[in-house]
Amino acid sequence: MSNKVVLAGGTGFIGQYFEQRFLEMGYDVVIISRRPGHISWQDQAGIVRALEGAQMVINLAGKSVNCRYNEKNKREIMNSRLETTRALGNAIQSCQSPPPLWFNSSTATIYRHAEDRPMTEKAGEIGSGFSVEVAKAWEQAFFEFHLPQTRQIALRIAIVLGPGGGVMTPYQYLVRFGLGGKQGSGKQRFSWIHVEDLLGIILFLRDRKELDGVFNCSAPNPVTNGELMKLLRQNMHRSIGMPAPRWMLEMGAVMIRTETELILKSRWVVPNRLVKEGFMFRFGRLERTLEDILK
């Protein structure tokens, strides 16, 4: 079998980490991206050639949701996910030797705001609102393709933590400048996954050829926002952190061109299927995750 892996949308924080690790494992890595120097999303023939004979394709593409939800941004957020997913599906259908495995990103935000109980793949309740509509449409576009030679897995990914990027940068700024207290009520759940465990999940599912469908990609021990901020202060040796009530967050979100949903929505998501199948998390608790990232 080919040792080629295709990273679609592979130039962001997660994609760069995956590229480095796959190269270390001896893979040939091909990247599809809007950035120069890679296969363009407009080059459908090039995408087919990239996928031909590949061991797997991992789709990470999509405009960042860290922006204001005006009509232009909402349209770009939606289209960037649907168009890239459909481009990959159409390309796989055109392959003589299609990849046997296609991972497509989804999001743990698909579930409702939950402070009462955790959301599993089987018993989780789908939420409402723009972000949820994006997630539903994204998964629908993915599973619309029926590919007899390609196993399809949708990864409902929680907030990804890792060194050198992602959401850790703004959180560190908040703590450093004395704003590391609870945000809103502080009771909203924070579900996360270490980027190394996300890669581990992909390698685990790669080898479990009987598994497909939807998987929650989140550490098994979510915390509250208050606990998150306390652990951040401890790891960054800051004893004081000013809390931020909702009205302050709303004002700040307008100023920095983002949405408070990213902080205030309670994401209580657990990886029920992965745990039942025997996946072992290296970073199952936030304490160890932050120690690793901030060391």
Keywords:
10 strands, two-stranded parallel sheet, alpha/beta, 41% helix, six-stranded parallel sheet
Outline:
With 295 residues, the chain is of the alpha/beta class. Helix content is 41%, strand content 15%. The termini are far apart.
What can you see in these coordinates?
- It is a single chain.
- With 295 residues, the protein is α/β, with parallel strands linked by helices.
- 41% of the residues lie in helices and 15% in strands.
- The chain has eleven helices and ten strands.
- The protein has helices at 13-24, 44-51, 71-94, 130-143, 168-176, 195-207, 225-235, 246-255, 261-264, 272-277, 286-294, and strands at 4-8, 28-32, 56-59, 101-107, 151-157, 159-161, 189-190, 192-194, 213-217, 223-224.
- The protein has a six-stranded parallel beta sheet with strand order 2-1-3-4-5-9, with helices on both faces. The chain has a two-stranded parallel ribbon with strand order 6-8.
- α7 packs parallel to α11.
- The model has no long low-confidence stretch (mean pLDDT 94).
